[in-house]
Amino acid sequence: MRDLRKKALLESGKTMSRKARTREVSNFGSTNQSPLSSSANSRPGSRAPSRYASEDEDTEDEDVNDSLTNSVIHSDDGEDVITDWTDRLKDCISEILDRKRSSVHGRESYMAAYVHLTRHHFADTIIESHLYELIPALLKSIRSGRNTEEKVAALKALTMTMLSTQSDGIYDQVFSSLKSASESSDEEIVKVEAINTMTVATMFGGGMEAAAEDLMDFLLEIIESDGHHIEAGDNGPVVSTALTCWGFLASHLDDLQSQSEQAIEAFTEQLDSTDVDVQIAAGTNVALIFEVNKKEFKAEPFQPYDLQYNQHQLVQRMTELAKESSKAVSKRDRRQLHARFASIVTSLESGKGPGYSKAGRVARESDRGGARVFDAEKVFSEFGYRETIRDQNMSLTIDSWSLSIRVAFLKKVLGGGFLTHWSDNPTVQESFDTA
């Protein structure tokens, strides 16, 4: 069994009744007033800001505030009653499993609360004790949810369940239902989340390398058809998600030779997309393919190195994107294009990873007569890799496209809980260590 590090529980205390907690959580998502979003109910200092803050975090579920984590509730007799996140999570699981008494709105609320709590806490032991009941309940909402919100909440909850437990038996249970959701749903957001969840199931739910390659082929069909393969024609978010997930899966493979030629052709075509996210994801995948293939070539120096595509032409097209000046592209999107494609061009030309800076300074100095002066022979030192993620005492320099892609994908999936899982979840740590 894996030697998982267990996250210490928050300070416990007297808890409110289950009925009262149920009443409070069921108010999640109200457009008028929700006890969960009331700052008056938030326990001061219930979390360290640096633990949940990230400049790139996805905040779509952040309307569930700290009262979902630890809260102080004022009871009728004036006594303060403290509840902690473990009780909240157990109640969410109980309500998700009790479908006979639940309403559509109730299931949406509890699954959204479940996602928030499992993002911001590493809850492997709690989830594992309910795993074989939880998976079928979430699949039922994914297959036959009454509305889009329920399906999306169930997909995200399944994603967090797999990331928290890494059970080898989940992939076979869920994959066919997830693929069906991506193909049959009429809603863009369901397709997007289903693709993300399929990717997590393949990498963290027990899928083997062959399963990863099969999913990459499926994603490539979506990319080549501009989304038409799953009835999402010319849908930017769906195509960009397929590209991002293809890159995440590919970053875990040691050899991309068999996929390279067809993939490069598809990604090159997507460089002309009108969607900036599609262009960036396609360019990033091109950089990854060159990185992986060059590493493979260095490992086998006597094998001919022939990528079967025009690198000069690719660099020329990407250089144009790095200088994109069309007024049809917003300033924000132009900045993103310039930064990413400048990095990709540097990578293709010099074999460096993302964010490498050729700018620098004179490195050699000496002391003469008490004053610091430059040596006659000056040595220029490049700044090098500038992209870093930090959390308290941890720091990680992103020096490869493989690592960059993994960080970006897990940031997207984990949202504001990214730093928590980086610190406490061995699954996430291993993903970064092996990049």
Automatic annotation (TrEMBL):
Pfam families hit by this protein: IFRD
Organism: Pseudomassariella vexata
Acidic residues: bias regions: 55-65
Record-stated family: Belongs to the IFRD family.
Gene3D superfamilies xref list: Leucine-rich Repeat Variant
Protein name: Interferon-related developmental regulator-domain-containing protein
Annotated Interferon-related developmental regulator N-terminal domain residues: 67-349
Biased composition range(s): Polar residues: 25-44
Region ranges (Disordered): 1-73
